[in-house]
Write a structure and sequence with these properties.
mainly beta; 22-stranded antiparallel barrel; five-stranded mixed sheet; globular; disordered N terminus
Length: 1005
């Protein structure tokens, strides 16, 4: 009887266990204490590796045993464990973790730090902010998003990259662009990366933040952390963006007066100083452009458990520019995996990233071979329809093919050609491939000490084809056309080893320290073969192959190798979570220099509220101060005293180009440029952390400027490298943000302010003049860097980077403008070295607003640039040719009113424009760059969940460069001739910037 009883008890217990062990489907939602959904919350079944994560709306579904416990964890919030006890629905609220309120920030070398312990300024831009309104180039999305970041558009079109400068221009002859670092490893560039692969982007504006990168860090660093597999069930994310472009600003032309000179109609001239006409129209400009199309599609898969995680993504970008025939395509493939072993003591991470881009017929801006030149200067009253068919060509029976159909081909300070011929017969194609392979291993030696090694191997290739059709401008192209072919290959192998310690030495003292070394080997090789302008041509017309080259064509090849090594260390010591001390040091050896160089930094941060106490009004206050020294590496080969001779196309021996300075007995050992920087700042939070203010003052002085001077005759070189100048940048950055919730409405506005002042503190006496010519020869204005004490400073103590000089109007001692007594024309300075202004803005001010209401989201970015100047060759030429709007208005008024006297408009504008030659009134064609624009706009809606498979769907209307709220220049003042140091403050027949409007669809599975 008892045996039967025991059997019954055991059977009941087994049945109970079976019942409680059955899996049930649990659904729920995770929010913060304000009932706002939390996405990507990690949900794990306690004691197992099973788990999932919440979607963008905070919702989750998981199948688990009915007696299980779920662990909810999220960065910045206190973890919570909940026993199910058979429940199938959960509503979970996570409370903010006061210990993690500061969050984790990725710093130099990929080292993670709490933000409150940082002694320097840094700005984080989330992936959501970067991809809210995205385009073909992710770097364009940085404009207006952070203080201290100045973004200038590229030369035009989807294949061009912007110029990015952090805290002002620091180098005369070197680069002023920041270093790009992906997952802790420096890379050559980032413009072509898949924006959907970005987890976050950190901007290290100052030297202290970037000091561990030594000679690469003078211009600041942009750190990119990429996505990787996440814990939980497999997730699939899809994003698709389609935007459509139209010209943002086009020149305003007069349409009242036709082709001719002196008021008399004349054919065959591209001047519009003829008589009044009734068929005038500028429609040929609008008709030339097509609607640009941009399609960006990406798909990513993420999966992981406690041991292994994997991330795979593919992205495709296809762009059709506003200029017909200009197309850009890109494919991005990323695979990344990580795994843990030996009880999670060893972490392995590896990945491969491939980027393939094709650019077809990327058109040039400015004068030569630019479709804008002939398009904008097309004489009024003529009909473009006569010249656009057959790709801008007309059949030539003698030659047996189509030749350029354009009666205005002449080299009048520039090459005037049929714009349709240029886009069809003068073409440039590029094929670029880049592969990045990386691997790392990290071993936890103890619970506070680990060692890690990383290796990245980056390879790239670039194949370029340039073709000029037969009958193109004969000044620059041979009778049968021209052809140039270049092939470049390169690689970069980066390796580092880091020993890291993170330990509490006592209840009051904590230390986070890293020591390590790095080694970088950079190689490249290239070949170039091509016609030598109009001096050589092709065997047959339009025979665009290497076999078609004839005569003394140009043929060059190059091989380079550079090795850089460093040892470095950093330590951050915290005292009572109140006082933080940072010190770093980096010693470098480089194949471009003869001696090693050491770069130190030190910083201090003090949490005031830990001493004085916090309140609802002032919840956090931190003061910080730093000092750092960083560098700008020497140009390749600049320290070589035995550089090679070269042979010209005519087999003549050319002398060595540039050598380190020597005077027969005296030599100079070149040193890398060195920036010595200090900054002071404060980070404040008010109203229970809802209002945030960060303010920074910085002062950076860059010494040992490296640039070239002309070598004397007989020196055996054309020029010398010298260390010859000092540049100072000082300024203020401030960011103010607010987090407000009004029920279901959440509002997060932010304001960024930046002001930088640049000074040329010193120029070497080896420079025989009082200036360094940064740019000259555009027939309008010049960019000079002046030595202190120069008479051209006109009373200013220092000059500045991108000071603009040119001819200006003359005034007497009383400030009265002077005029020619006979002609009535204003008098101009005899030389073009008079100060006009500076190209850089006085300050930047940006307003970013984000609103969410239930399933709706709305955001906009207002970007303002105040001050600064830009001169315009386009406006100079339009005046000269009688096409500008004001030249027509002057004729309507009977002349240009100058000092009370009416002057013939053709005479006046020919005079002030110098007929587009040297000697123009530079000040007349220099405009304020001040502008305020609606940079970005996004209006979206997240669909209610309608499927267990589809976790979320969001559809947004997006726009970029939507409209100008204020502008004085007759063109987009952000346009520049290019992204180089010498191309700023000057525009010349640029491809117009684009207004982009479109849709973005996002879906998660």
């Amino acid at each position: 009887m008892m045996r039967k009883f025991y059997k019954l008890v055991v059977l009941l217990l087994l049945c109970q266990t079976y019942v409680f062990a059955q899996n049930i489907s649990v659904t729920g939602k995770v929010t913060d204490t304000d009932n706002l959904p939390l996405p990507a919350v990690s949900i794990k079944v306690s004691g197992t590796t099973q788990g999932t994560s919440t979607d963008n709306n905070g919702n989750f579904t998981i199948s688990v045993p009915s007696n299980a416990s779920l662990v909810f964890s999220y960065i910045g919030f206190t973890s919570q464990t909940i026993a199910l006890q058979g429940r199938t629905t959960l509503i979970v609220k996570l409370a903010t973790d006061s210990k993690m309120l500061e969050g984790v920030v990725v710093t130099a070398l990929g080292i993670e730090r709490t933000s409150k312990s940082l002694t320097y300024a840094t700005t984080n831009i989330s992936a959501e902010d970067l991809n809210q309104v995205k385009g073909a180039n992710v770097l364009n999305s940085l404009a207006g998003k952070a203080a201290g970041v100045f973004v200038t558009q590229g030369a035009g079109g989807p294949g061009s990259s912007p110029r990015i400068v952090l805290r002002g221009n620091k180098s005369i002859g070197g680069s002023n662009t920041p270093l790009y670092v992906v997952d802790g490893v420096p890379v050559g560039g980032f413009a072509d990366f898949n924006p959907e692969d970005i987890e976050s982007l950190q901007i290290l504006q100052g030297a202290s933040a970037a000091a561990l990168y030594g000679s690469q860090a003078a211009n600041g660093v942009i750190l990119i952390t990429t996505r990787k597999g996440k814990l939980g069930t497999t997730t699939v994310d899809f994003a698709s963006t389609a935007t459509y472009d139209s010209p943002f600003v086009l020149p305003e032309l007069q349409t009242t007066y036709g082709q001719g000179l002196g008021g008399v109609a004349r054919t065959g001239v591209n001047d519009s100083w003829g008589p009044k006409i009734t068929n005038g129209s500028d429609s040929h400009i609008k008709d030339f452009f097509q609607t640009g199309e941009n399609y960006l599609n990406s798909l990513s898969i993420s999966s992981g458990n406690e041991v292994s995680r994997v991330y795979l993504s593919y992205a495709n970008t296809n762009s059709k520019a506003m200029i017909p025939g200009y197309n850009y395509g890109r494919n991005n493939v990323t695979l990344r995996g990580s795994s843990k072993a030996f009880n999670n003591k060893l972490t392995l991470d590896g990945g491969i990233n491939f980027i393939g881009t094709q650019t077809k017929n990327q058109n040039a801006s400015s004068w030569y071979n630019s479709p804008m030149f002939g398009l904008y200067l097309f004489p009024m009253g003529d009909n473009m329809d006569k010249y656009s068919p057959n790709g801008g060509g007309v059949w030539n029976a003698t030659r047996g093919f189509y030749v350029q159909n354009w009666p205005y081909v002449k080299n009048e300070h520039s090459s005037n050609q049929n714009p349709y011929w240029i886009i069809n017969k003068i073409q440039s194609d590029d094929v670029r491939n880049r592969t990045n392979m990386n691997g790392s291993a990290k071993l936890d030696l103890t619970d506070w000490l680990n060692i890690a090694g990383r290796t990245t191997y980056n390879t790239y290739s670039l194949d370029s084809d340039n073709r000029q059709g037969a009958s193109s401008d004969p000044i620059n192209t041979g009778a049968n056309g021209g052809y140039q072919k270049s092939v470049t290959r390169g690689s970069e192998l980066y390796t580092d080893v880091l020993l890291s310690a993170n330990k509490e030495l006592s209840d009051d003292i904590k230390i986070n320290a890293v020591v390590g070394f790095s080694n970088t080997i950079t190689k490249s090789n290239g070949t170039y073969n091509g016609t030598n302008g109009a001096n050589t041509s092709l065997y047959y017309a339009d025979y665009f192959t290497l076999q078609g080259l004839t005569g003394n064509f140009v043929s060059t090849s190059s091989i380079t190798k550079r090795i850089d090594r460093s040892v470095f260390g950093t330590a951050s010591v915290g005292f009572k979570e109140t006082l933080f001390l940072d010190v770093t040091g980096r010693n470098e050896w480089s194949s471009t220099t003869e001696s090693p160089f050491f770069y130190p930094s030190a910083g201090l941060a003090y949490i005031l509220t830990n001493t004085l106490g916090s309140s609802d009004a002032v919840s956090f206050a931190k003061l910080r101060a730093t000092y750092a020294e960083v560098g700008n590496a020497l140009p390749f080969g600049s320290a070589a005293r035995n550089s090679n001779y070269s042979v010209g196309p005519d087999e003549s021996v050319a002398g060595r180009g540039t050598l380190p300075f020597f005077s027969g007995t005296d030599t100079i050992t070149l040193k890398p440029e060195r920036s010595k920087s200090y900054e002071f700042g404060a980070d404040l939070r008010f109203l229970k952390d809802k209002l945030n203010l960060s303010v920074t003052y910085y002062n950076a002085t860059t010494e040992d400027q490296v640039f070239t001077i002309t070598a004397p005759t007989g020196a055996g070189a054309s020029s010398f490298f010298i260390n010859g100048g000092t540049i100072q940048n000082q300024g203020i950055e401030a960011t103010l943000s607010y987090n407000a919730s009004f029920g279901n409405l959440k509002w997060t506005p932010s304001v960024n302010f930046s002001r930088n002042t640049n000074r040329i503190k010193e120029l070497s006496n080896l420079l025989t003049t009082d200036r360094f010519v940064l740019q000259s020869g555009n027939r309008l204005t010049n960019l000079f860097l002046l030595r202190p004490g120069s008479a051209l400073l006109q009373g200013r103590k220092y000059g500045a980077y991108h000071d603009i000089f040119g001819k200006t109007y003359l005034y007497d001692a009383n400030g009265n403008q002077q005029f020619n007594a006979v002609t009535g024309l204003p008098l101009l300075s005899t030389t073009d070295d008079q100060y006009i202004g500076n190209a850089n803005p006085d300050f930047l001010l940006n307003l970013n607003n984000n609103f969410t209401y239930k399933n709706f989201n709305f955001s906009f970015l207002v970007d303002g640039r105040f001050g600064g100047l830009v001169s315009s060759s386009t406006e100079q030429w339009l005046d000269y040719k009688g096409l500008s709007k004001r030249s027509g208005e002057a004729r309507d008024a009977g002349g240009v009113n100058v000092n009370g006297k009416l002057i013939n408009p053709e005479l006046y504008y020919g005079y002030v424009s110098a007929k587009a030659d040297f000697g123009a009134a530079g000040k007349e064609y220099t405009y304020s760059s001040t502008n305020i624009r609606l940079r970005e706009l996004a209006i979206g809606y997240t669909l209610p969940k309608f499927s267990n498979t589809i976790k979320n769907v969001n559809l947004s209307l997006v726009g970029r460069n939507v409209l100008f709220l204020y502008k004085k220049a007759p063109f987009d003042p952000e346009l520049a001739l290019g992204t180089g140091n010498s191309n700023q403050g000057f525009e010349s027949f640029q491809i117009p910037s684009a207004t982009s409007i479109g849709l973005t669809l996002r879906a998660g599975f």
